[in-house]
Amino acid sequence: MSDSHIQVTASIDPCGLDEHPDCGIRDVLTRVGDKWSVLVIVELASGIRRFRELQRGIDGISQRMLTLTVRRLERDGLVTRIVYPTVPAQVTYELTSLGSSLTHLVKQLADWSLEHRENIGHSRADYDAQHPAHEIH
Amino acid sequence: MSDSHIQVTASIDPCGLDEHPDCGIRDVLTRVGDKWSVLVIVELASGIRRFRELQRGIDGISQRMLTLTVRRLERDGLVTRIVYPTVPAQVTYELTSLGSSLTHLVKQLADWSLEHRENIGHSRADYDAQHPAHEIH
DNA sequence: CCGTATCCTACAAGATACTG
DNA sequence: CAGTATCTTGTAGGATACGG
């Protein structure tokens, strides 16, 4: 019945995720999945940026959230933060090699979502049409 | 200085993400990034599952959250839900081909996080040691 | 310019009880 | 078994004001 999935199974669960749900993946996924991290990573993939440049490049992000996001990325070793003791202050952000290695995966997710967004959109419309009562987001 | 990033730049932003932040990627990322979706996808990558089987396979998920998660995945066309009119009720869940195509990306994220988890762990420890006052998660 | 400090709200998610 | 229906709570994230 499920023979076609067995190969996938063997490789999708390299760390016994079924028994150990937190082999680190949720950690990464919550980081990648939060509202701004990926956009910051994408922005930094274009090169080194200052704080204001980042904020201008990321539509809608507040100062607070940019600070928090960029600090978490720094803490995880994905981003380097350099403070120049000038007046006024000047701070630059840049992806580390670890951060850069994530951009490839992010790019694939972006490509996937781009490729299937219409598909998903139709699916949602169909579902909503057939389940008028329910409210799901 | 940033010459090494130019190639990445060209491919990381296939849809002008800088100007159009919502080309669909955030949609996908918030789905992938929520607390349970990926674990459900991983579980279903092993084959067809019933509701209870899913819940037993995913440690800590509540009935409510499993229902919500699986409904959203169904709505997005990633999962097929089949209700058998038996008594008691019997419902099965299975990945669609679209859903299966996501498992590959999820697997790569899992591999990445597995490969770099120690790295990240050390980075965090270092950061926390050097910034004793701050509390970042 | 680059943040920190507060305050506030919305929503994700848990706990629990009940139903076809 | 496979859900719904409530109620509650934690926390992510927004708005705003101030500081080095």
Automatic annotation (TrEMBL), chains A, B:
What protein does this entry describe?
Transcriptional regulator
Superkingdom to which the source organism belongs? Bacteria
Q: Which PROSITE patterns does the protein's record reference?
A: HTH_HXLR
Residue span, HTH hxlR-type domain = 23-121
Could you tell me which species this protein originates from? Cryobacterium lyxosi
Q: Which Pfam families match?
A: HxlR (PF01638)
Question: Known InterPro entries for this protein?
Answer: HTH_HxlR, WH-like_DNA-bd_sf, WH_DNA-bd_sf
Keywords assigned by UniProt? DNA-binding, Transcription, Transcription regulation
Any one GO molecular function term:
DNA binding
